[in-house]
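re: ur question from yesterday

yeah so i grabbed the chain u mentioned. its 279 aa long if i counted rite. heres the sequnce exactly as i have it in my notes:
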Amino acid sequence: MSDYKYIRVEQEAHVAEVVLDRPEKLNAMPFELFYEIREAFGELDRDESVRAIVLWAEGRLFTAGLDLNSTGAGGVVGDGNGDGKAGRSEARSNLDMYGTVLKLQACFSSIQECRKPVIAAVHGKCIGGGVDLTTACDFRVCTEDAEFSIFETKIAIVADVGTLQRITAIVGKGMAREMAFTGGFFGADRALATGLVNRVYADKDSMLEGARATATEIAANSPLAVQGVKQVLNYSDEHTTDEGLDHVAHWNSSYLRSDDLAEAMQAFAEKRPPRFEGR
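ran it thru and got these structure tokens back, copy pasting raw so excuse formatting
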């Protein structure tokens, strides 16, 4: 696994952990962190020993969002004077910014595209880019003190790295629009009630214990089946029911006759837990 500056990656058995590791800066996100996320999840996707992933953060909060001190306001919204970079037209500068946004979007989309289920474990504030990051995960848990904010609206930006494309399917149209229009902070109680999180824990330690236990439970299942479920769910999110049914029929016709299925049947007959190897 690569070495990173702003995150770290750890693994125990079949469960990997991706940790935002910039607590002295409240895990604020420079552009380099986005690219580290993309590289880490690409590696974890390819690592067959990894079957589930927990994403969490060091320090007193999950993330303060985009690091404007590092990226500079111009890195987000342009320099505001119409001149762009020296020697470039405003049109050329705008096209460059468009390309940058697409690259940042792809970084967090790598989480959704990763074949392994990803659980986001959030404590404290999760601001702006943190919501982009966590809504790309398969599901979220949080602590009682967690607060979520689509904060971009407060600083005159339309959130553009995935939140607005994903959050309605998670929390419903009304909640999504209230969060996005106001930019306000929404606590753990509303997050749980609207489905933004699956479970609320008393504190960070109990949250991480619970998230790891869930990841371990996932990892005990056949990785072929779990990864197939994620792929089919992702496909079905973007297609009609009939298209999704046809897709899963094709999927199972290709993958049903696995060694893992044979192991499951034998384990059932022998009244023992199955030992899946992903074959």
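noticed a couple things. Confidence is low (pLDDT under 50) at residues 73-84. also The longest helix spans residues 90-113.
anyway ttyl
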